[in-house]
Design a protein that fits this description.
The protein has 19 helices and 5 strands.
């Protein structure tokens, strides 16, 4: 692996891409510390910490995760990449519902994909403007913050400045991600989210060091055996996430030979991969958003009804774990059904002379795909539910802060592992294309005479 890292620096084009990627990510991280004008960031951060302790988490906690702490201090990148993620999901759902968009995505080719990308950008800006408008109105009201004045000079001037700042910050982040994707290495949007998640690692490491207290045994709260057990558990969880992320069911496909003129086409064998975790991290985000919505409302409006609902869905309760797991399994099947159409795949195979051995083309193939996809999705959905609630279990079992336990599973670990695997694959392909050995070396078979 060290030799592969050294080979990266030997390839000028790859070295340039990696340095450009690091530079653009550094620009994003610097912007996360530039405050929005006219806001008391310290008071706002204290308010977010209070509602997080009293309600167990809010929707702003998810936004703060994806923005790398920018939402907590209301910096210029406070909205982060969430408007782009929401716009992408909305466009993906609309593509399956609106025939014009579906035809544009399937038959438009490169031009169609470019138009859909442009629509996603427009949607991102619109969502950013709407969210920033409501955020500016919310910040102006001291009643939402137990009487604390967050905004120094409220009014339309502050509102317009906040909308312009936050929406421009989101547009700039979107531009950074596209530049990384086009000129750097890896998926730009995913790398930005990963950088936001990893930015919490120094704080978590500091908290863990204080709990271990190797130089002050009197203040020690975690012994050496517990620390070793935590390391073993983390390694095991990461290995399990890698296995499930890479796991797939390969459906063999045979293409019949076709004679056109004097040439013979087709006749090759291939496969269609059905991933175990086809939906990725989307089901966890959807489930968290639904369950945290009552807690968010209860934090803003001290209504007894909202407070009762928030307490019933408090993180750590049996009801919370049950509903959380059920929603994740539901959204796994829902998102898979939206993004994968067995009828279209079967029709395309039939059009180009492809068939599955032992299965008739057409409707029987679509039914076969649907049956296999239903069975493959179930273990992936159960694994997502387990990995989502695992940080809460670790936090209560080992009595450690949730910031440390969040690296043992959940959204952060799934996104980080998936993005790292995808980036390593791209670097590996770049190295192999230039006749260098990649990260994964294959063993050589020795033959005997």
């Amino acid at each position: 692996m060290l030799a592969a890292l050294a080979n990266i620096l030997k390839v000028p084009d790859l070295r340039k891409k990696i340095f450009l990627t690091f530079g653009l990510v550094a620009v994003y991280r610097i912007g996360c510390f530039v405050p929005t004008p006219g806001i008391d960031g310290a008071a706002l951060a204290q308010f977010f910490d209070n509602i997080a302790r009293t309600t167990g988490g809010t929707l702003f906690g998810i936004m703060n995760l994806f923005s790398g702490g920018a939402m907590r201090n209301m910096t210029i990148f406070a909205l982060g990449i969430m408007p782009y993620i929401s716009s992408s999901i909305i466009m993906q759902l609309l593509t399956t519902v609106i025939p014009q968009l579906e035809r544009l995505a399937k038959e438009g080719g490169e031009e169609g994909r470019r138009k859909i990308t442009q629509y996603t950008r427009y949607g991102t800006v619109i969502l950013a403007v709407i969210q920033s408008t409501f955020i500016s109105l919310w910040l102006e009201n001291p009643a939402h913050f137990q009487g604390v004045q967050i905004v120094q000079f409220p009014g339309w001037g502050f509102r317009l400045l906040t909308v312009l700042t936050l929406a421009s910050g989101t547009a700039f982040i979107m531009w950074l991600g596209e530049q990384i994707t086009e000129y750097g290495i890896g998926n730009g949007m995913s790398l930005i989210i990963t950088a936001s998640i990893i930015s919490r690692l120094p704080t978590a490491t500091n908290q863990l060091f204080l709990l271990v207290s190797p130089f002050a045994p009197a203040r020690r709260q975690i012994d050496v055996l517990t620390l070793i057990a935590m390391v073993i558990i983390m390694v095991g969880v990461i290995v399990a996430v890698v296995v499930i992320t890479q796991g797939q069911r390969r459906i063999p496909v045979q293409y019949a030979k076709r004679i056109i003129g004097r040439k013979v086409y087709g006749g090759q064998s291939t496969y269609i991969p059905f991933r175990v975790n086809h939906a990725g991290v989307i089901p966890i985000i959807f489930a968290q958003s639904l369950l945290l919505f009552p807690a968010t409302i209860a934090g803003f409006f001290p209504n007894p009804t909202f407070q009762k609902m928030a307490n019933a869905l408090m993180k750590g309760n049996i009801l919370y774990f049950t509903m959380y797991s059920g929603l994740i399994v539901f959204f796994c099947y829902f998102y898979t059904a939206i993004t994968f159409n067995p009828v279209d795949v079967a029709d395309n195979m039939k059009k180009y002379g492809g068939f599955i051995p032992g299965v008739r083309p057409g409707k029987p193939t679509a039914s076969y795909f649907d049956r296999i996809l239903t069975r493959v999705t179930l273990p992936g959905a159960i694994f997502l539910a387990l990995i989502a609630i695992f940080p809460r279990i670790i936090s209560r079992w080992l009595n450690i802060p949730f910031l440390i336990a969040s690296f043992f599973g959940g959204t952060a670990l799934l996104i980080t592992v998936g993005v790292m695997l995808d980036t390593m694959k791209q670097i590996e392909s770049q190295l192999l294309m230039r006749h260098y050995e990649g990260f994964l070396r294959k063993g050589k078979l020795r033959s005997r005479r």
